[in-house]
């Protein structure tokens, strides 16, 4: 996983609540057996018309948001299907941070496994950042995971909190399977005890 | 054991599976059963391969093919879509290479992962169960802790049989009293989501309790737990009871004899202790729940079938008003319109929410001796080959076919728009599935979620209809 330390870039405003993972990447595009290439179908039902041409009204089809690295949305972002293709599609498009008042649990987990930073900020702050983002290319915002601050275009710093373990893994781009493997002896002894107490699980 | 703080069902299963607690409170949680399917696993197996890792406990892992496949006879001659064929072949190849048990596509046990787990007796009380699929919450109906995970976590479980998890908060939803005529588990869960909202359960595991939940059969409980994720909760659970034990006794792979007796000793200790703490509690009266149908593009946009399409102008909150307007526009509705006036093009009875034998019986009871309305395509997709076989043994397929329904092969089908069963733009469906998101059943498709009996009634009427007006004409 690519480490996430700090990011300064264009933020795209998506003033919607309940952006579900079927919107982020519709199921018909989940047939790839690779982790890459999903960016071209990110938000496909919004970005493209039925004939396949671009929908000019959708934010990611507008300059400068075609190069957005941050997405700002409203409540319950990433609800619905557990598909990790959603953060893969965001990442493949170039979006490495999503800011919203809250996130659905599974999507939130999946982001951390892929170096996509989900930042929770109060709704009024998200609304303010969306106004900033509407200023376009001159409105670059900074997301600093080291210091846990979002820096608005006017220099104002807004603090956020990330779970310390996840922050550590993300700052260092660490794979948590490797970490868990260090607990193998504990897993072995758990299994031995469980097998004795609940043999039907090992039948 | 010494006197302990009263614990919930969730607390007890959680505590029994903590391998280690890390300094920051994250638990390394042991996973008893890992179900896998073709869509969310290829990248996980690639990860294992790249790191030179294997599956820690293949016998605690089970693969099945369900999302991608056609539900007509074409599966017997090979998968037509090359991308789908590759994804299915990849699961088969990975299963062989890593020694993972896999139910073959043409095996009679093949079916939707959340139907086959309980049906085969693999999903049991007290277990931790995961799958790269949000509707894994279904298995909580067995009295298990079951939740969906992403592909990175699939890889983590394959390699270590554990997950890094923070404990969830406890929520209890009690549904008291008796369910009214014409209502089912689907109506209960839709009414609950209407009440708590799509994010109402975020951060929680929900335990369902109360007389109306106890009175549900296992299929009904699975429907309720299945849609728990639609209320934002990580998992839904129902404490095991005699209904659960009787169900397990009928499964082919559940524990038998002495093993079952020993398992039951533990299972009987699982129900929530008196006085256990719930962070959130909610009570509903079952008799106040009418048959439900969604009108908008998330499952919280739900009303009794007697309702009318909301008027965005009546919504005071600006953001909510805009969202309501968007839903009304997308769904092609007119504010004030009666829901029962909405004509349907397609009726879909199936999905991990409602494709069990009990669901098919409910649909067939309404359909028997009647005809699907002209111009309506109505399909019934059993949740597994075993469900299909059981339904055929009861003659339900004949009843449904005579009424004009299609009787199909098991799979996820029209729930999610990734196999040949899809809506075309603008088509309106009455669907027993779980998500009415924009484009979920196909780009531009318009989905109304409802129970199997309500779906059957809509098929007969040609429009959304109140199942209470369609009492069975004759016994099944």
How would you describe what is shown here?
The complex is a heterodimer of chains A (203) and B (476). Chain A is of the alpha/beta class and 203 residues long. Chain A contains eight helices and eight strands. A four-stranded antiparallel β-sheet of chain A has the order 1-6-7-8, with no helix packed on it. The radius of gyration of chain A is 19 Å and the shape is globular. Chain B is of the alpha/beta class and 476 residues long. Helix content of chain B is 31%, strand content 16%. In chain B, the strands form five sheets. Chain B has a five-stranded parallel β-sheet with strand order 5-4-3-6-7. Chain B has a five-stranded parallel β-sheet with strand order 17-16-15-18-19. A four-stranded parallel β-sheet of chain B has the order 11-10-9-12. In chain B, a hairpin with a 7-residue loop joins β13 (292-294) and β14. Chain B is globular, with a radius of gyration of 22 Å. The termini of chain B are far apart. Classes of the chains: A alpha/beta (203), B alpha/beta (476). Chains A and B meet through α4, α7 and α8 of A and α2, α3, α5 and α10 of B.
Key features of this structure:
heterodimer, A: 203 residues, alpha/beta, B: 476 residues, five-stranded parallel beta sheet, 15 helices, 31% helix
Provide a concise account of the structure shown:
Chain A has 203 residues and is of the alpha/beta class.
């Amino acid at each position: 996983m690519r480490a996430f330390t700090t990011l300064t870039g264009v933020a795209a405003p998506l003033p919607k609540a309940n952006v579900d993972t079927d919107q982020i990447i519709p199921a018909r595009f989940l047939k790839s057996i690779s982790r890459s290439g999903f960016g071209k179908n990110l938000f496909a039902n919004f970005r493209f018309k039925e004939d396949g041409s671009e929908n000019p009204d959708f934010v990611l089809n507008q300059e400068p948001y075609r190069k957005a690295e941050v997405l700002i949305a409203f409540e319950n972002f990433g609800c619905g299907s557990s598909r990790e293709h959603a953060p893969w599609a965001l990442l493949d498009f170039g979006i490495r941070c999503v800011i919203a008042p809250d996130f659905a649990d599974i999507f939130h987990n999946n982001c951390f496994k892929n170096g996509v930073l989900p930042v929770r900020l109060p709704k009024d702050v998200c609304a303010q950042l969306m106004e900033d983002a509407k200023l376009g290319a001159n409105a670059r915002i900074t997301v600093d995971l080291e210091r846990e601050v979002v820096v608005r275009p006017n220099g104002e710093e807004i603090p956020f909190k990330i779970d310390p373990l996840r922050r550590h893994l993300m700052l260092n781009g660490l794979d948590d399977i490797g970490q868990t493997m260090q607990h193998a002896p504990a897993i072995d002894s758990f299994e031995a005890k469980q097998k004795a107490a609940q043999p039907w699980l090992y039948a | 054991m010494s006197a302990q703080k009263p614990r919930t069902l969730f607390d007890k299963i959680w505590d029994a599976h903590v391998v280690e607690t890390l300094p920051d409170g994250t638990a390394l949680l042991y996973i008893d059963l890992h179900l896998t399917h073709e869509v969310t696993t290829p990248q996980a197996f690639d990860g294992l391969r790249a790191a030179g890792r294997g599956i820690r406990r293949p016998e605690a892992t089970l693969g099945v093919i369900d999302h991608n496949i056609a539900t007509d006879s074409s599966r017997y001659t090979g998968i037509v879509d090359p991308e789908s064929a590759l994804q299915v072949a990849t699961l088969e190849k990975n299963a062989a290479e890593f020694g993972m048990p896999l139910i073959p596509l043409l095996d009679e046990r093949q079916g939707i992962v959340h139907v086959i787990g309980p049906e085969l007796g693999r999903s049991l009380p007290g277990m931790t169960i995961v799958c790269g699929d949000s509707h894994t919450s279904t298995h909580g109906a067995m009295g298990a802790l079951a939740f969906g995970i992403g592909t990175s976590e699939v890889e983590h479980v394959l390699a270590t049989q554990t997950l890094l998890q923070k404990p969830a908060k406890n929520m209890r939803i009690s549904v008291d009293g008796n369910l009214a005529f014409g209502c089912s588990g689907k109506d209960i869960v839709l009414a609950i989501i209407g009440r708590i909202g799509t994010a109402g359960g975020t951060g929680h595991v929900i335990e369902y309790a109360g007389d109306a939940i106890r009175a549900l059969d296992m299929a009904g409980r699975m429907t309720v737990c299945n849609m728990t994720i639609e209320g934002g909760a990580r998992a839904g659970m129902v404490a095991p009871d005699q209904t659960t034990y009787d169900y397990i006794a009928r499964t082919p792979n559940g524990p038998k004899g002495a093993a079952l007796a020993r398992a039951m000793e533990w299972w009987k200790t699982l129900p929530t202790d008196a006085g256990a703490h719930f962070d959130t509690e909610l009570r509903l009266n079952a008799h106040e729940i009418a048959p439900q149908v969604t009108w908008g593009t998330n499952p919280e946009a739900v009303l009794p079938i007697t309702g009318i399409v909301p008027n965005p102008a009546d919504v005071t909150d600006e953001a909510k008003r805009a969202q309501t307007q968007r839903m009304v526009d997308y769904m092609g509705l007119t504010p004030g319109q009666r829901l029962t006036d909405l004509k349907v093009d397609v009726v879909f009875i199936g999905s991990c929410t409602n494709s069990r034998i009990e669901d098919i019986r409910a649909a067939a009871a309404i359909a028997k001796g009647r005809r699907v309305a002209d111009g309506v395509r109505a399909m019934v997709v059993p949740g597994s080959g075993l469900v299909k076989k059981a339904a055929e043994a009861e003659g339900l397929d004949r009843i449904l076919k005579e009424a004009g329904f299609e009787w199909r092969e098991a799979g996820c089908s029209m729930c999610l728009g990734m196999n040949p069963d899809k809506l075309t733009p603008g088509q309106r469906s009455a669907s027993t599935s779980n998500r009415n998101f924009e484009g979920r059943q196909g780009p531009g498709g318009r989905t109304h979620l409802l129970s199997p009996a309500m779906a059957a009634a809509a098929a007969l009427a040609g429009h959304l209809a109140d199942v209470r007006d369609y009492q069975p004409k004759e016994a099944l």
